[in-house]
Design brief:
mainly alpha
């Protein structure tokens, strides 16, 4: 490695404030170019802009860089913030607290912590060892993937602050109430025996001594890990959304996922559970469904079921939970999601 290359590699850590300013200006300039660039790309192709294919292509060319730019910025900033919320510190904040208030704290921590369904087993084990109550643990495990910073920021960017706040309130309510109900059912006996018999360990918060430059490095690491892992799902979600946007008639989607069909909400949940994606991948689909006349409550139920009740997460949790506890978890959370869908279809 040359001295010049080494200097470039260290530059963000050496001048973090200047780097953040330059990066923000460059990001904003790129974001402003998305609409004209997408229209220019479609115009350069032998496709009629007003055709089904032209509309689908413009949607894809615009949303793909938009979502990736938003996701990169969000993950970078949250990677810096998440350097304060290590698994050890999260366990220490929740350990020894009573249910109720602890469910609220656990669900709130889920918003700002970088854990997803792939982290479910190690997190679950760590929480049990630290003495965190079972219901409190479930409030965190529901909230962390479902009400995360990626989902909220993308919802805000695409639909405005009202929908983002609505989703925040609904997601937190489902996580808090579902965790509290599971805690009241006293189902510790349905943990796998090896999990229940693990020795308890003290959870310590530890101290954060990272510099701003080191937190920048944490932001870069988060971008490499998270964006590098989810970009195929983003492209898949946007491709599906583009197909819906360009080819699905509005009347068809309104009749299929409209608020007048009582079966639309449970069907949306049933369809969402087997899907394996995340907030970044499902939000472009949500955007296309709403634009075609689908009811907001039905679409929110679909989104929540995809993120909070994915089949792969159930398979992962089977390593630490017995079938009855998994079924209870799915039933309680699904009931909350159904209530959310029906209530908002009724009032909006």
């Amino acid at each position: 490695m040359t001295a010049h290359t080494a200097t470039l590699k260290r530059w963000p850590s050496q001048q973090p404030l200047l780097f953040l300013f330059v990066a923000a200006v460059a990001w904003f300039a790129l974001y402003q170019m998305l609409v004209p660039a997408s229209e220019a790309l479609v115009a350069a192709l032998p496709v009629d802009r007003d055709s089904h294919l032209g509309g689908a292509l413009q949607f894809f060319f615009y949303d793909t860089p938009k979502v990736l730019l938003l996701l990169t910025a969000i993950v970078f900033v949250m990677g810096m913030i998440n350097s304060y919320f290590t698994p050890e510190r999260t366990r220490a904040l929740l350990a020894g607290r009573t249910e109720g208030a602890a469910n609220v704290m656990a669900a709130s921590l889920g918003i700002v912590t970088p854990f997803c369904s792939c982290s479910a087993v190690p997190l679950f084990i760590g929480f049990v060892q630290a003495g965190v109550p079972l219901g409190v643990t479930f409030s965190f495990l529901i909230s962390a993937p479902m009400v995360n910073e990626v989902a909220l920021t993308l919802l805000f960017a695409m639909f405005g602050w009202k929908v983002a706040l609505l989703y925040l309130g609904l997601g937190l309510t489902v996580a808090i109430v579902a965790g509290w109900v599971i805690g009241r059912l006293r189902m510790e006996a349905y943990l796998e025996d090896w999990v229940r018999d693990m020795p308890r360990t003290a959870a310590t918060a530890g101290e954060s001594t990272l510099s701003l430059g080191e937190r920048l490095d944490a932001g870069f690491a988060a971008v490499r890990e998270i964006v590098g892992r989810v970009w195929p799902y983003i492209l898949g979600g946007i491709a599906i959304g583009a197909g819906i946007h360009g080819y699905v008639p509005q009347d068809f989607m309104a009749s299929f996922m409209g608020k007048d069909n009582w079966w639309a909400v449970p069907l949306a949940v049933v369809i969402g559970v087997p899907m394996y994606t995340n907030a970044a991948g499902v939000i472009p689909i949500v955007q296309a469904l709403l634009a075609k006349g689908a009811a907001l409550g039905t679409v929110l139920a679909f989104m929540m079921s995809v993120i909070a009740l994915s089949l792969p997460e159930m398979v992962i949790l089977r390593k630490v939970l017995k079938i009855r506890l998994i079924a209870t978890f799915v039933g309680v959370v699904a009931t909350g999601i159904l209530i959310v869908g029906y209530v908002f279809n009724a009032v909006l």
